[in-house]
Write a structure and sequence with these properties.
- 61% of the residues lie in helices and 12% in strands.
- It has helices at residues 7-17, 21-28, 32-39, 47-57, 61-64, and strands at 2-5, 65-68.
- It has a two-stranded antiparallel ribbon.
- The longest helix is centred in the first third of the chain and has 11 residues, at 7-17.
- The chain is globular and about 30 Å long.
- The termini are close together.
Length: 69
């Protein structure tokens, strides 16, 4: 199963929280380039990373990500 960001929702949530891609990367322990790829739905994430990002952005995982089989 692949966990992929819902790009528009993810970006909107990041901006509403006041984070740039670099700031979100710093707070999440991920690289800026990974956040960029994630926002373009190029890179899938694992469940732990999806949970961490959801918590940082104050949204449910299901709001920010979709699950592909």
């Amino acid at each position: 199963m692949r966990i992929v960001a819902r790009s528009d929702v993810f970006i909107r949530a990041r901006i509403i929280k006041g984070y740039s891609q670099r700031e979100l990367a710093k707070h999440s322990g991920l690289s800026h380039s990974f956040i960029s790829l994630l926002e373009r739905s190029v890179k899938p994430v694992g469940p732990g990373t999806a949970r961490k990002l959801s918590d940082l952005l104050g949204k449910e995982m299901e709001e920010l990500f979709h699950f592909e089989r």
